[in-house]
């Protein structure tokens, strides 16, 4: 008997065992209802090959941005300007719009922005669509503004707009229940010299050479229809301690500052948190419990040893706390234990719920050479709710494993036009200002590409292709009047607030 036949025989035995378990009630079959992403058009020329089609596409996109942009700029224009009034040529509103334009257009640097947006012809085309752009500034002027203002005001404006969107009719329709939030840290860039006192210092390698990092803690929100929106950012940086000396920050400290702000935006008891194993510690879990937040936190095999020891003992004592399931082509085996006592900080005790998932599947075409290979992996999460046979699969699949969406968002921001890893300025205040403008632009582009009015164009061009073609058309050719999306029937014009409901965001992901 060959090795392939032996593997097939073992797989057949496992399938028969699972079928017997389902018939006897000891196992459950959970069908995989994941929605397949719609394929991008593969025909020559894409979806807007004719100049008229491209112009209409750009006019539609401009009409959608006209819903979100004006109110954002009004609030950004109220940021206090510390420049000399006698030397001001470009207003705060113009400079903020210029900064948003850099990221919305996916322009990679300040020099590229000066090159692509600096001509009078381009200004005339942009001003025809967006009259808020009163003049065309130089990118260095924006740098000087961001280096002097309180850039946290930019983020506060975005917090207000994000809260306004989530509490609008469209936001409540798309997410009537809890908010699924992902939090993770990421490095912006690294240098081998200390260019700013706020940069984090690290030592690595055998020689222990010091490196200096710009690091941020970002949060993202996944709506129930699969759309992922950027939320707030917390700086992870050096700062003065009580004695005036420099004190190094870390992700866990930044998490508590971010949790306070998220509670203010999203509300107490309305958040479900999905984070990696760095946050599997007593203070973070206690903070979630005090805020009445649900959570699924990855637990590594070498973390919280006492919890793992109790878990193994409880699994032996209660073998009924298990579930066999099938997720697509993957066979899964769940085991859990609830109310495990964990003591930290000397005398603080909390109760934890731990669930594990062992998963096996066959890869028909693995990277090693095309020979079918049997794969296996293990997952473990700390759960905010008690685990039962009814909710084990749903919590692990829909909440725990959905955490990987934040890695996809970081990939988009780093490698698909938003230049997350580009510093733009070595002035720390200006660097963070550019980062906050990038987050607002990411939010605006996400709303744009998920509008049902743009759905057929996204499927033809792709997300990145649509964004590039829209702005290339506006900058190089210009468009006529922006075409607003169709309004809801019988809905009166809002009193200055964006009519998010008229956007009719798509109930599927790209």
| Major beta-sheet overview | 10 strands, mixed
Poorly predicted runs:
489-496
Helix content: 40-55%
**Alpha-carbon distance between the two ends:** 45 Å
Order of helices and strands: HHHHHHHHEEEEEEHEHEHEEEEHHHHH
What gyration radius follows from the Cα positions, in whole Å? 26 Å
> What is the tally of helical segments?
16
Mean pLDDT: 83
Category from helices, strands and their pairing: alpha+beta
The count of DSSP E runs of length 2 or more, i.e. the number of strands, is 12
* Range of strand content: 15-25%
| Shape field | globular
How would you describe the overall organization of this protein?
Residues 489-496 have low confidence and may be disordered. This protein has helices spanning 3-24, 51-76, 92-104, 110-117, 120-129, 139-148, 152-166, 169-174, 251-266, 282-290, 305-317, 392-400, 405-415, 428-449, 455-461, 463-476, and strands at residues 179-191, 200-204, 209-222, 228-236, 239-240, 246-247, 271-275, 294-298, 322-327, 330-344, 348-363, 373-383. The radius of gyration is 26 Å and the shape is globular. Helix 6 packs across helix 14. The strands form 2 sheets. Strands 1, 2, 3, 4, 7, 8, 9, 10, 11 and 12 form a 10-stranded mixed beta sheet that branches. A two-stranded antiparallel ribbon has the order 5-6. It is α+β, with helices and mostly antiparallel strands and 510 residues long. The longest helix is centred in the first third of the chain and has 26 residues, at 51-76. The protein contains 16 helices and 12 strands. Strand 3 (209-222) and strand 4 (228-236) form a beta hairpin.
């Amino acid at each position: 008997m060959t090795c392939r036949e032996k593997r097939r025989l073992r797989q057949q035995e496992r399938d028969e065992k699972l079928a017997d378990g389902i018939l006897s009630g000891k196992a459950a079959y959970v069908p995989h209802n994941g929605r397949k992403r719609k394929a991008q058009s593969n025909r020559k020329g894409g979806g807007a090959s004719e100049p008229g089609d491209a112009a209409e596409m750009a006019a539609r996109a401009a009409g959608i941005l006209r819903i979100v942009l004006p109110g954002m700029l009004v609030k950004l224009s109220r940021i206090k300007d510390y420049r000399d009034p006698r030397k001001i040529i470009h207003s705060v509103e113009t400079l903020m719009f210029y900064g948003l334009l850099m990221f919305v257009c996916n322009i990679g640097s300040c020099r590229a922005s000066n090159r692509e947006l600096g001509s009078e012809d381009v200004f005339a085309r942009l001003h025809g669509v967006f009259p808020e752009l009163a003049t065309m500034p130089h990118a260095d002027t924006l740098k000087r503004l961001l280096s002097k203002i309180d850039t946290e005001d930019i983020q506060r404006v975005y917090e207000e707009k994000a809260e306004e969107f989530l509490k609008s009719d469209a936001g409540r329709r798309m997410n009537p229940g809890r908010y699924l939030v992902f939090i993770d840290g990421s490095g912006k860039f690294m240098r081998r010299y200390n260019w700013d006192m706020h940069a984090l210092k690290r030592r690595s390698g055998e020689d222990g050479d010091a490196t200096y990092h710009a690091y941020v803690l970002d949060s993202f929100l996944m709506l129930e229809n699969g759309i992922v929106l950027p939320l707030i950012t917390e700086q992870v940086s050096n700062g003065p301690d009580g004695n005036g000396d420099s004190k190094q920050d870390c992700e866990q400290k930044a998490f508590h500052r971010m949790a306070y702000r998220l509670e203010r935006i999203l509300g107490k008891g309305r958040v479900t948190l999905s984070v990696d194993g760095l946050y599997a510690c007593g203070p973070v879990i206690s903070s979630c419990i005090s805020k009445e937040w649900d959570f699924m936190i990855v637990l590594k095999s070498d973390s919280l040893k006492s919890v793992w020891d109790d878990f193994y003992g409880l699994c032996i004592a209660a073998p009924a706390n298990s579930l066999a399931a099938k997720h697509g082509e993957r066979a899964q085996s769940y085991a859990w234990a609830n109310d495990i006592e964990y003591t930290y900080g000397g005398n603080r005790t909390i109760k934890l719920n731990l669930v594990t998932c062992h998963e096996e599947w066959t890869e028909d075409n693995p990277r090693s050479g095309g020979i079918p290979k049997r794969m296996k992996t293990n997952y473990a999460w700390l759960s905010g709710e008690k685990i039962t046979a009814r909710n084990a699969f749903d919590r692990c699949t829909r909440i725990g494993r959905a955490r990987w969406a934040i890695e996809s968002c970081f990939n988009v921001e780093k490698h698909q036009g938003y230049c997350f890893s580009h510093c733009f300025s070595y002035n720390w205040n200006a660097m963070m200002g550019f980062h906050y403008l990038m987050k607002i632009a990411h939010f605006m582009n996400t709303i744009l590409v998920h509008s049902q009015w743009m759905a057929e164009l996204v499927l033809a061009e792709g997300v990145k292709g649509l964004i590039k073609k829209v702005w290339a058309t506006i900058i190089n050719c210009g468009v006529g009047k922006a075409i607003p999306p169709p309004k809801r029937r019988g809905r009166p014009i809002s009193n200055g607030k964006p009519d998010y409901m008229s956007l009719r965001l798509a109930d599927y992901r790209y």
